[in-house]
Amino acid sequence: MAEGKDETPAAEVKYYWPNKMGRIALLALEDVMGRNGVNAVLNLAKLKHLVNNYPPNNLDLQFSFDEFSAIEQALEDMYGPRGGKGLALRQGRAAFKYALREFGAVLGMADLAFRLLPLGMKMKVGLNAIAETFNKFTDHKVHIEEEASHFIWVIERCIVCWNRESDVPCCYAAVGILQEGAHWVSGGKNFRIDEVACIAMGDPTCNIVIEKKPLD
Question: Which residues lie below 8 Å from residue 180, measured CB to CB, with a gap of 6+?
């Protein structure tokens, strides 16, 4: 759990997602590139223990930040920055669809009252509900900031770029999750979503800007 961990020496700190979310991430990647492709990525990431052995479908905090970030780095190493970005974005979008099945009731956005909200309020409520789900079930810490024209998804502790270094923002899986999340929350609209700051670049937080005005 996150409580008390920050007092541990940095080299020993371990943070986790629940097994269920780790499983979702791997199933989503399998949708994008097939089981053999996932196995190749896992081997490159030195995560052979996960080959044909995805985490169980439970909420135990056992899927580490190190494992997830190694997978995302392996995607870039194997397919190059552009190819890795495309696969990670698609992984994120597929992961949100899987997560809806598992966490939809927790998100609490299926009732009529939510569907009748104005678009801006719907986006605000929806993004906060997604952030609260991460904060409740994982060591991945997020909050939402709001400006006149956009929301900012601020990741204070990021599983995607954990212990990675990059010259450009690299949390593509997180952007993919938000792309699909915004599409679902808004009832089918698409939005411009860009990561503008990244811990892997030396920034204090990973900031993803979500424009309020839809593209369509």
Answer: 92, 93, 94, 95, 96, 97
Cβ atoms of residues 62 and 55 within 8 Å: yes
Contact of 60 with 19, CB cutoff 8 Å: yes
Q: Taking a C-beta distance cutoff of 8 angstroms, is the pair 208, 178 a contact?
A: yes
Domain boundaries, the chain: 5-211
CA-nearest of 101, 69, 85 to 32 is 85
d(CA 95, CA 173): 9
Report how far Cα 174 is from the mean position of its chain's Cα atoms: 4
Instruction: Name 141's bridge partners.
Output: 157
Distances (CA, A) of 98 to 71, 74, 121, 194: 18, 22, 24, 23
Angle between helical axes of 65-107 and 19-44 (0-180°, round to 10): 150
Q: Contact, 74 vs 88, CB < 8 A? A: no
- pLDDT tens profile 129-144: 999 999 999 999 999 9
pLDDT of 108 reads 65
113's CB contacts (< 8 A; 6+ apart) are: none
Sign of the torsion formed by the C-alpha atoms of 17, 19, 24 and 30: positive
Percentage of residues in the chain having pLDDT higher than 70:
90
CATH number for the domain formed by residue range(s) 5-211: 3.90.1520.10
